[in-house]
Design a protein that fits this description.
Keywords: Hydrolase. The protein has helices at 3-34, 37-55, 113-116; strands at 92-98, 103-109, 120-122, 134-138, 156-161, 164-177, 191-198, 208-219. It has 220 residues and is α+β, with helices and mostly antiparallel strands. A hairpin with a 4-residue loop joins strand 1 and strand 2. It is rod-shaped, with a radius of gyration of 52 Å.
């Protein structure tokens, strides 16, 4: 056996021991690494780095939210003009039909004696029939309205003018003092107020007024 062979024979056990020790060390490290948070941290770190690298090219600024569109303001609806031209005092503006009495009475603009002698007078400072607010009609108890006391709550009053046909339904019957001005006060909706002297059989100037308050229920 030469010197070289003797040298190799001596070093082989040493190499085996080194390799065995290294293998055991790697196995022990692998077991320790897998049972600690180190492996979880490393996996998370690698996923984070690879995900970041893959997403860097796709990062964009968030799109700005569209500004709300301003809606055009609604146009205010103008009230319908029923009477383009105001009537003259004493003018016949239409008829009042009372179905309960089967009576048709002419209406004149104004409540002076001149108008009341001819028919029903329309109080000139009130709106015309059919318009929103309080339209006031008056008449003598011993002529046109001699049977008005037969008309009560729930009965109809129909006014026909150049603007159309307007049907009212009596909502309230009132008896007030002749100086009571609440009869002519404005109303929030289309109303017809019909007034005459009361009591109907009173001799001389009657102290009270018989009032019918009716709401507009139909327009034609």
């Amino acid at each position: 056996m030469n010197r070289e062979q003797v040298k190799n024979r001596r070093t082989k056990p040493v190499k085996r021991l080194v390799l065995l020790s290294l293998s055991v060390a790697l196995i022990v490290f692998g077991v320790w690494f897998s049972t600690t948070n180190a492996s979880t941290f490393l996996k998370g770190y690698l996923l984070f780095k690879t995900g970041q690298a893959g997403n860097d090219s796709h990062i964009t600024e968030p799109a700005a939210a569209p500004e709300p569109k301003e809606e055009a303001p609604e146009k205010a609806s103008l009230p319908e003009v029923l009477y383009p031209v105001a009537p003259e005092k004493g003018e016949n503006i239409g008829d009042l039909y009372i179905p309960k009495l089967d009576a048709t009475l002419p209406i004149f603009h104004g409540t002076d004696e001149e108008e009341l002698e001819k028919g029903v007078g329309h109080f000139a400072d009130s709106v015309l029939p059919g318009e929103s607010d309080n339209s006031v009609l008056s008449g003598h108890r011993d002529t046109v309205f001699r049977r008005l006391g037969e008309v009560g709550k729930g009965d109809l009053l129909v006014v026909e003018t150049s603007a159309g046909k307007f049907t009212y339904k009596v909502r309230q019957v009132r008896i007030v003092d002749r100086e009571d001005r609440t009869v002519i006060v404005p109303k929030p909706k289309a109303t017809l107020t019909v007034s005459t002297c009361y009591p109907f059989d009173f001799v001389g100037y009657a102290p009270d007024r018989y009032i019918l308050v009716a709401d507009l229920i139909e327009s034609e």
